[in-house]
Design goal:
This protein is α/β, with parallel strands linked by helices and 579 residues long. It is 32% helix and 15% strand. Helix 1 crosses helix 21 and helix 10 crosses helix 14.
């Protein structure tokens, strides 16, 4: 990696509610290009870091957490200076998601815009709390193309360049070590985004003309707040208002709104009943009470870390599965053989891969006895035909013919899952299968999205849109990773409370995103959010699942262009095309 350090004019982050980000005397900027094995060579990828120190009132925190970062993707033949680009797309990640998740959609969008003569950039933001992650093992393993390097670092205590892994958080650590994260809620997250945008494109009119703001999943709601936010809390000065930083908005299987009850769209309720579940405007006093209650939650659980399935250890496990599939796709059981035995990992494997309740409860047959290629292991974890939770699904193919599978009945059989409210959001829309022969002899391989035959009764080519090899690369290569180990609980709780003291002081422009062009992408197997009040263009994506709006391959099985990047590029060329 090559790095340059630049000092740019100071930015001032002004807010009426403490704690707020401290105003540095100068903003340090470090940009480092990194190499990717992606076949797309016309896009330059780099990590950009800005020093935006937290106020002392946040309490003790690691020095590296005084920096905010993003992945910058730009045309290789485009301008080096961001403010000279034709357009800049700025994307907020979803829950448990890092900047690396946007690599495919970013590169594909830039390539398509370049074909229309526009040199654009795509900024994938990384939350400040990701400063706590230790990527030493992943980075070294990627450089050496060796999964064992990472496994030895994270599981066996072997050092890399003299550094040893300090371990993953537990519940006691959560309270004691990460208490400062209780203040990393919506206000700080918005100020971090504003700091980055203002530092790299200093002129407000240029930002308003060139920057498109959006996000994936929870990132759409964060963007909705951003549009409605007034950073100095003063209506008389609107140059700092969020809506005056963006020329338009894009929603990647989400909605650009501050109202989280927009997810009730997927309940398919009658209009009269649906109106009853919308978030009402509540008095300031009730908002203050809710703020206190949420604050207690944030203090007890500052990091979203459950005993199993969702915690830093299992989220890193996803990156390691991808690393094994990327470095040795046809090797067998690299991750399974390396995983330590503990309650968290054993129970997570059961939850994700069990075919029925008997297997989930008893652990028999033992999931670890499966024999599968590294690519098939990643597919079993992430594919919409296996992963039981909709928000973690992508459509990357199917178990290759030759090894038997059966319909999954855990946690719900397909016919029952389809009857549940928010069924696509919760479970996805494709049938679920699991290996039926876990005998240590039968080898399970993987068929990629473009290797599915039209006569396959388990899935169909139109339901497969993302490449397993591309997903493996994106989940393991970028220096700011695909998954997020340390999601701050306060971000979600503060997004839920639109009547909090902070929101009353700064969320001064309700529905401000409706003032500009907007495009909303809705995955067929996604969370089912419509464009707010019918504003802008709604693009439905049959066959796509929640992650596919980020990971879909440029070449689709139907022979047509990939629709997310195609329409994002069209918006970058002319935002008014989405009116």
């Amino acid at each position: 990696m090559t790095g340059t350090v630049l000092t740019v004019p100071a930015i001032t982050l002004v807010g009426q509610a403490a704690p707020a980000a401290a105003a540095p005397s100068s903003l340090e900027r470090v940009e480092s290009e990194y190499q990717s094995s992606s076949p797309i060579t016309s896009v330059v990828s780099s990590v950009v870091r800005h020093k935006v120190p937290l106020a002392k009132s946040f309490g003790p925190h690691p020095a590296q957490c005084d920096w905010v970062s993003y992945l910058r993707f730009r045309s290789a033949d485009g301008p080096a200076k961001s403010s000279d680009a034709d357009r800049i797309l700025v994307a907020q990640p979803g829950v448990l998601e890092g900047a690396g998740a946007f690599e495919s959609v970013a590169k594909n969008t830039i390539v398509k815009a370049a074909k229309q003569g526009k040199r654009i950039e795509f900024w994938a933001l990384d939350r400040r709390s990701n400063c706590l992650e230790d990527h030493t093992g992943l980075t070294a393993a990627t450089d050496k193309k060796s999964f064992d390097v990472a496994a030895n670092y994270y599981f066996k205590g072997k050092p890399v360049n003299g550094k040893r892994f300090a371990g993953f958080t537990n519940n006691l650590d959560n309270i004691g070590k990460y208490g400062w994260l209780k203040n990393i809620g919506v206000k700080q997250t918005l100020e971090d985004q504003y700091a980055i945008m203002k530092a790299d494109v200093p002129d407000q009119q240029t930002r308003k003309r060139k920057m498109l703001c959006g996000g994936h999943s929870l990132g759409g709601f964060i963007t909705g707040y951003f549009a409605e936010w007034d950073f100095d809390g003063n209506r008389a000065t609107t140059g700092d208002a969020g809506y005056n930083q963006c020329a338009g908005y894009f929603a990647l299987d989400t909605g650009i709104t501050s109202d989280l009850t927009a997810m009730s769209n997927s309940l398919n309720l009658p209009p009269g009943i649906k109106a009853m579940v919308q978030m009402p405007a509540i008095p300031k006093e009730l908002g203050q009470v809710a703020d206190l209650l949420y604050g207690l939650t944030d203090s007890v659980l500052p990091v979203l870390a459950l005993p199993t399935l969702i915690n830093p250890e299992t989220l890193n496990l996803l990156a390691l599965a991808a690393l094994a599939a990327d470095t040795d796709p046809h090797g067998v059981n690299a991750l399974i053989d390396a995983l330590p035995h503990n309650f968290n990992i054993d129970s997570t494997l059961r939850i994700l891969l069990s075919k029925d309740y008997g297997t989930a409860i008893t652990g028999q047959p033992n999931i670890r006895n499966i024999r599968a290629t590294n690519q098939a292991v990643l597919g079993a974890i992430m594919d919409d035909n296996s992963m039981p939770f909709g928000i973690l699904q992508s459509s990357v193919g199917m178990v290759a013919p030759g090894a038997p599978v059966v319909a999954k009945s855990f946690p719900l059989p397909d016919n029952l899952a389809k009857m549940m409210p928010m069924s696509a959001a919760a479970w996805g829309d494709n049938k679920k299968v699991a290996p039926s022969r876990i005998d240590g002899k039968t080898l399970y391989r993987w068929a990629d999205y473009d290797q599915i035959k039209p006569n396959d009764t388990r899935t169909h080519p139109w339901q497969e849109v993302s490449s397993i090899s591309e997903l493996a690369r994106n989940m393991s290569e970028p220096p700011l990773d695909f998954t997020e180990w340390y999601f701050p609980t306060s971000l979600f709780t503060s997004l839920m409370n639109r009547a909090s003291p902070e929101a009353f002081a700064h969320r001064l422009y309700p529905n401000a995103a409706l003032r500009a062009p907007m495009v909303t992408f809705q995955a067929g197997g996604g969370i089912g959010i419509d464009n707010p009040r019918g504003h802008g263009r709604l693009i439905t994506l049959p066959g796509y699942n929640h992650l596919d709006v980020l990971t879909a391959a440029a070449k689709q099985n139907n022979g047509r262009p990939e629709r997310v990047s195609e329409n994002l590029a069209a918006m970058a060329v002319d935002p008014r095309s989405m009116n």
